[in-house]
Design goal:
The protein has 482 residues and is an alpha+beta fold. The chain has 19 helices and 14 strands.
């Protein structure tokens, strides 16, 4: 009886508006990655592959097949569309229609690995030189106001990020302090331009401080000609006198985070009460100049120590004793707070800099500028989650180094597109992440048709940035001058 009641009469589902969906023949004119046409156009405008080939040089004896520049650009294009591993190159090749839009034909994953293994140290250095060439070409396409901003001052941020890998056969992969088998990309990033200028793939247990000065020199060499002022920002992991001395000798303005020690804490306690000034854009925070200089640092060179303190109510203090915030609190204050004798405590951080902090306004501005060192942290996140730096897929360290550069190049191409098409705010402070660009531009589906010997894209009604970016790129002239 119950089964009879549950059974639907014939045709009842059709009367309720149900429509059966069928599957027809595949449409071989469709692609899910129509936005790679924008990558081909930006390559035409800026000559990215051409610059790579010129600076890197040949990596094979035979001239046929993929070149060094074509390999890097195809790897970057694959990562921009979502490729996670080398096998992603094979997946791109299966998109026959999308291959018509690619800047260069995508090589097979085996070919990619074999050619990448041929990159020597001189070839890797050529990648940096090529990026410098493209940076100069970008300046020729931006507005005069934006060009003046980029040439007025260039900020170079240096940082490392660990990439966990798996498998004991990974060449030179070692355990880091967290117990992860990992590599450590060491990157110098041009904050205003949104481009990585120099990078190395280090072992996860290597200290970046001894090579920081060399990395800085390589990054400076790739800045566009005519930059008036060069600045650099480093976190407390680069707290070393040699780096500061090198910056002073080169005339580079710097700000380096200070590792907390008893000497700097004593100097902070002696700061006059009227020397603290409200920080810019950070509530309940004050900054002051304190009398602290490590003994090995150069004296009479204009190096000043800045202290920043943030008010933390006791009820908002972390309860986990391993919390990082607890390490910023003066131990004497922390003990009193735990005894219930204080209502609030202060978290402290310190910076050593040779910038001018002679007035409260200049002091506040310098601290605010240093706080934007998070630009490189945003790059690390974008390279990992937007591109594929979260994976280093090969057992060969050289292949992994080329893969790292492809990820950094993918982030650079995304920012170059936004810069020369004007879809950001014109100041470099409102760039879209690569993950967002993938969603709004690179992975837009479309039907590709041939009209008058030209390709025509027919995207869906909601085509994201594709109808905006592609025509703007097509209107730009080809730039080949360095």
């Amino acid at each position: 009886m119950m089964l009879a009641q549950l059974a639907s009469p014939k045709g009842a589902s059709r009367r309720r508006g149900f429509r059966r969906v069928g599957i027809g023949a595949s449409d071989h004119k469709l692609t899910g990655h129509a936005g790679v046409a924008a990558v081909a156009e930006v390559d035409r405008v800026l000559g990215i592959a051409q610059a790579m080939d010129c600076a890197v040089g040949p990596v094979k004896q035979r001239r046929r097949g993929v070149t060094a520049g074509g390999l890097l650009l195809s790897m970057a294009s694959a990562q921009m569309t979502g490729a996670d591993f080398l096998v992603g190159m094979d997946l791109r090749r299966t998109d026959v229609v999308g291959q018509q839009l690619e800047p260069v034909p995508t090589p097979a994953s085996t070919t990619t690995a074999q050619v990448a293994k041929r990159f020597a140290a001189t070839h890797l250095a050529g990648i940096e030189n090529a990026i410098g060439m493209v940076n100069a070409r970008v300046l020729a396409l931006v507005s005069p106001r934006r060009r003046a901003q980029l040439l007025a001052a260039a900020t170079i941020d240096g940082d490392t990020t660990d990439v966990e890998v798996y498998g004991r056969d990974k060449q030179d992969a070692v355990y880091n302090y967290q117990g992860q088998r990992a590599y450590r990309p060491h990157i110098a990033f041009w904050a205003e331009g949104g481009v990585s200028l120099a990078a190395d793939l280090m072992k996860a247990d290597e200290d970046p401080r001894p090579v920081a000065a060399q990395l800085l020199d390589r990054a400076i060499a790739q800045l566009p000609p005519g930059v008036a002022t060069i600045r650099c920002r480093w976190d407390a992991g680069y707290f070393a006198a040699d780096l500061a001395k090198h910056c002073i000798d080169r005339g580079v303005e710097f700000a380096i985070g200070v590792k907390r020690n008893s000497a700097v804490v004593r100097a902070c306690r002696e700061a006059p009460s009227d020397g603290w000034h409200p920080a810019k854009g950070m509530p309940h925070t004050e900054v002051a100049v304190i009398d602290y200089l490590p003994g090995t640092w150069p004296e009479d060179s204009g190096v000043t120590c800045i202290a920043r303190r943030t008010r933390i109510p006791v009820e908002l203090m972390p309860t986990d004793p391993r919390a990082r915030k607890l390490r910023t609190i003066d131990k004497a204050q922390l003990a009193l707070a735990l005894e219930g004798k204080l209502d609030c405590v202060y978290g402290y951080s310190f910076i050593l800099t040779n910038l001018d902090v002679s007035t409260p306004a200049k002091l506040v501005e310098v601290e605010h500028w240093y706080r934007h060192r998070t630009d490189i942290e945003a790059l690390n996140k974008d390279a990992k989650h937007g591109a594929a730096l979260r994976h280093l897929p090969s057992g060969d360290r050289t292949v992994n180094t080329v893969w790292m550069w492809a990820a950094l190049l993918a982030c650079a191409i995304s920012n170059w597109i936004q810069e020369i098409t004007g879809i950001d705010d014109g100041r470099g402070r409102a760039r879209r992440t690569l993950a967002r660009m993938r969603r709004e531009l690179f992975n837009i589906p479309a039907r590709v048709t041939h009209t008058n010997r030209a390709l025509t894209l027919r995207p869906p009604p909601d085509a994201g940035l594709l109808p905006v970016v592609l025509p703007r790129l097509q209107d730009l002239p080809t730039i080949r001058a360095a």
